[in-house]
Each structure stands twice: as C-alpha cells, then as structure tokens.
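Exercise: predict the fold of this chain.
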Amino acid sequence: MFPKQVQLWARRLAERLVKPLAPSGLTPNAVTVVGFILNILTAVILASGHLSIGGIFLFVSGLFDLLDGALARVTGQHSDFGAFLDSILDRYSEAAILLALIYVFTIHGETAQVLLVYIVAIGSIMISYARARAGALRIDCKVGIAPRPERVLILGFGLLLSGFLGHATTTVAALIILALLTHITAMQRLHYVWRQTEGQKNPGSSAQPSTKARESRIS
C-alpha cells in the first residue's frame, strides 16, 4: 500500500484537477461511469493485442478512480449509492481487463498464462469480498499491500513494457507479482478482521444461530 503521504498528495492533486469542473454540474457518478467505459475500451484494445496502448489506457481509466472521489469531496456530493456504484463498476472493470488477457493468451495457446490470470482474478475477488464482509461487521478493512490502485499500476507498467519490448514477458511478470500480492492482501485482511474481533464474547454460542446469522453464513 502507498504511504499515507503519497495517498494524501494524490488526493490533493485529484481535487485540484476536478475543481474547475465543479461549477459544470458534472456528478461524481457520471465520472465513475466514464471511467468504466474507458476500462471497457481498454479491455477491447488489449484483446486486439495492443498491449502498450492498453497499458496507457489502463493508466488513464485508473485516474478516474481518483477523480470521482475527488469531485464528490469538492462538491459535497457524497452518497451511499455513489460508493456502491463505484465499487460495482470497479469489479466489472477489473473483470473485463483480466478477461481480455485471458482471450489474448488463449488464442496463442498459452494455457499456463491463462491459469495465472485466473489466479489473479480469484485474488482480486477475495480482496474486495473481504472488505465487503468486514464492512458488514462494521470494520473498515482497507489494509493490505495491493489494493486496487497498486494493482492497476503493476499491471499497467507490465503491459506498457510488454508492448515496447514486442512480447508479453513483462505482462506475465506483472501477473506473477499480482498472483502473489492479491492473495497476500486477502490474507492480511483476514488477519486484520480476526485481530479486530479477537476476544469478543458470544453469549449465545451454545444456542442455535439466529436466522440472520445462518443466512449470512450461506451468502
């Protein structure tokens, strides 16, 4: 995870960039949707085999992850639905990018690389799922070494360098790094929630679990 100083610098920079847009009536949700569309376009570019261009577009679309939140802060347009929309579209965006890479590796018959992308996808899903389940326990779980901005940067540089070098070696290297870091991050979040809940008493442990608890386990 980026140091706090870097995160604060990025937030301030994003707020400066969107401040001129504040009087225009542009909403944070609209910025979120534009970012999603750019991610889909990035996936199409990657699927066509243009890795370096796809890497550039991945950086541009990733910038919108900062801009929608910055616009919400500048204009005071925070909303629960906006946060929910951002989270949902982020998951679809990441899935589209990884699906494009699966397509590229599949048409070249590179089975090992396809499996590698699948491992990264599972790790990314578990990172977001861990945070969502922690949120249901009223625990703000943002810990870990590879949240979404870091994953975008790692993959973006891998794609960019692969395009310049004329092969996918650095993309595969980036995917190997992500395969490790995503699952490490998921385990870090598991450990964090365990520490936060450690020692909590459960007075009804000997009784039958409530309907709500059973449903929670099933989901």
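Check your answer against the key: The helical segments are 4-18, 28-47, 51-75, 80-107, 111-136, 148-165, 169-197, 211-218.
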